[in-house]
Amino acid sequence: CVTLDVQAACRDTSVTQELLKEGFHRDLLVKVELGEDAGGCAVAAQVRLPPGIFVDPYELATLQQHNLTKAVLFPDVTDVEAPEYLARDVVLLLFLEPEARCSRCFRAAVPVHARYHRPAQGTEEALVALESPEVLLCCCHGHLSAECWEPAEVDAPCSSDTSPCQWHSTKHRPAYEESVLRVPVGLREHNSLVCALTLLTTGLCTGLILAAACKYGHF
């Protein structure tokens, strides 16, 4: 069978991702082990971020200025204040760095942030599923096996110092697992209580401000 021969010749590339830390502000760690040596090639992970999670482009720019990470966002304009239900998917191309003790191992991390969600009924958390990344290779000065790699539609250079070249993705993709981010949300049952307390607090603060203005103000 041709399919089996191709899969036998193309050793599996493994990819794992972890969401580190707790709360709304996390670090996304991606680790890749290639099935073959990729000497001279750039290795990247293409991650599709759902509306419930985002990368701050301003924070990313600062990290890149200090050479702490390399990544590209598509689109590159992100509303960091938008809640989950007004946001949209974003694609992150994260450039991976080689590990010292493994010639076929690469890794990189980038800060990610959870968005606020609508209040839920009967649960105190929303689940944000993060699909496994797609592994990409960009070999501007080398060649990849046509049996194992196919051209990918990625409009980005191999690195920040080179012109755009052709990225490739693996033809034989094993089944990867999703990562799930649990985001705390409010309860709809508490809407009336929250509204009442908000109005009471606003009225009290407004009264205190007016009282202070009348007592100490000069009109």
From TrEMBL:
It comes from the Eukaryota. Pathway: Glycolipid biosynthesis; glycosylphosphatidylinositol-anchor biosynthesis. Keywords: Endoplasmic reticulum, Glycoprotein, GPI-anchor biosynthesis, Membrane, Transmembrane, Transmembrane helix. InterPro entries: PIG-X/PBN1, PIGX. It is found in: Endoplasmic reticulum membrane. Pfam families: PIG-X (PF08320). Its main location: endoplasmic reticulum. GO terms for biological process: GPI anchor biosynthetic process. PANTHER family: PHOSPHATIDYLINOSITOL-GLYCAN BIOSYNTHESIS CLASS X PROTEIN. Belongs to the PIGX family. This is Phosphatidylinositol-glycan biosynthesis class X protein.
